[in-house]
UniProtKB/TrEMBL annotation:
Record-annotated HTH araC/xylS-type domain positions: 209-307
Pfam (any one): HTH_18
Keyword flag DNA-binding: yes
PANTHER family recorded: HTH-TYPE TRANSCRIPTIONAL REGULATOR GADX, HTH-TYPE TRANSCRIPTIONAL REGULATOR VQSM
Keywords linked to the UniProt accession: DNA-binding, Transcription, Transcription regulation
GO CC aspect terms: cytosol
Protein name as it appears in the record: AraC family transcriptional regulator
Keyword DNA-binding attached: yes
Superkingdom field: Bacteria
Transmembrane residue ranges: none
Lineage: Bacteria, Pseudomonadati, Acidobacteriota, Terriglobia, Terriglobales
InterPro entries for this protein: AraC-type_N (IPR032687), Homeodomain-like_sf (IPR009057), HTH_AraC (IPR018060)
Length: 314
């Protein structure tokens, strides 16, 4: 493991800490390191496959205790935010049902080994829950063709490389497949605990913080409008304004704080050019971003980034 941490640029004593906290970029670096260190190109599939119930975490145990594959994935999507800034996106259609993993703070594509692990994990839950060797319709991967035979053999379906998204696609009817692992008593015990954790997790955030987090998820090359953020929070624009005012804030202030936080993250944890950072933050040009950053930090972003790197080295 020391070689993995070294190649990932992470501290050698990382796993000696009582609580391990990683940025998304550090998490990706860790998984790239695992992929590089392993002689097995299918290591992600192996790590994502589990058949023993006792090895599943409470979230998966609660999911396996539900009545169907679809309900299980809805449970997982609900509680996933407890562990990391990641969304499980369920996209049901008339004939197909696509499942994607969206990393909310990522500014790069996730490592292939992590994509393999996530989709193997979904398949493991589906097969364990249904008691059948269910297979998806296809696997869609953004990366170039590689290890196709291992992937096709593991998932039992066609693998499309160079796709527009990373997704595991099932038949729409697969969502209704009943779970033989259904356990109402266990679910009744686990769900309230997870709901309480979720409540505490959300309760730790003030309303302006929730607005900022929602804005950050939408800051992907364009400036989100108030109506869009209100819709994401399932409230009206008027209610959004009122609640922000009650908390001593405003939408413009929340937007600037969201941009400020993300700007610091990008400058510290990525090699993005300033023009790319400005674009991701929804600025029309680099000069607008530089002016805003001077207001926030008192220095230009390039100078601030250089100072942070010097601190990291010293």
């Amino acid at each position: 493991m020391s070689s993995v941490l070294e190649s990932a640029g992470l501290p050698s004593g990382l796993f000696d800490q009582p609580r391990i906290l990683l940025s998304t970029e550090e998490f990706f670096a860790l998984w790239r390191g695992i992929g590089q260190a392993s002689p097995d190109p299918a290591i992600g599939l192996a790590l994502g496959t589990e058949t023993k119930t006792e090895h599943f975490d409470p979230v998966v145990l609660a999911a396996l205790s539900t009545s169907s594959f679809g309900e299980a994935m809805r449970q997982i999507a609900r509680y996933k935010q407890l562990s990391c800034p990641e969304e499980v996106v369920l996209d049901p259609g008339d004939e197909e049902w696509a499942i994607q993993f969206r990393w909310l703070l990522a500014n790069e594509t996730e490592p292939a080994v992590l994509t393999d692990l996530c989709f193997a994990w979904v398949l493991s839950i589906a097969r364990h829950g249904t008691g059948m060797r269910i297979s998806p319709v296809r696997l869609e991967l953004q990366r170039p063709r590689a290890n196709a035979r291992s992937l096709e053999r593991h998932f039992g379906c066609t693998v499309v490389f160079g796709a527009a998204r990373n997704a595991i696609v099932f038949r729409a009817s697969d969502a209704e497949l009943r779970f033989v692992t259904r356990n109402a008593e266990l679910l009744a015990m686990l769900a309230p605990q997870l709901d309480e954790e979720l409540k505490q997790h959300k309760g730790e955030e003030s309303f302006p913080e929730r607005v900022r987090a929602t804005i950050q998820r939408k800051l992907t090359g364009s400036r989100p409008k108030m109506q869009e953020i209100a819709r994401e929070l399932h409230i009206s624009s008027r209610t959004l304004q009122r609640r922000l005012q009650d908390a001593g804030s405003s939408f413009q202030k929340a937007l600037e704080e969201a941009r400020h936080q993300l700007a610091r993250h990008y400058l510290t944890n990525s090699l993005l050019e300033l023009s790319e950072t400005a674009h991701l933050l929804g600025y029309e040009d680099s000069n607008s971003f530089v002016r805003a950053f001077r207001v926030w930090e008192g220095v230009p972003p390039a100078h601030w980034r250089g100072t942070q790197r010097e601190k990291a080295v010293s």
